[in-house]
Amino acid sequence: ALRGRFGFGQDVDQIIKRGFIVPLTPVRDAFYASISKGADIYIEDVNAENIREHIPSWYRKLVPARSLVLFPIMINKKPVGLFYADCDIPGSIRFEATELSLLKTLRNQAVLAIKTHS
What we know:
alpha+beta, 5 strands
């Protein structure tokens, strides 16, 4: 499983303490889709009709956010980490092209750092 270790924002310490844990077992949800395929995922509203069933119950119980973004950290096509961000207001997470590029660069630097220390 991928376990949340640290973060920034309101109530993040409590969320991590209660166990922000993304299982690696195959399930049909947005988190597994992201980490199994190495795909960046943006969900505008976790309660949208076409998305609702793809949000796991562990997440709904733990985090009250309505929108989220996932940036998996992959090494040799295997998930080793995940950058996650959320917002309570649906559709309010927006990235300009330069911001998105910087986030991907941050992820690439994390991959390089992990590979260097492995």
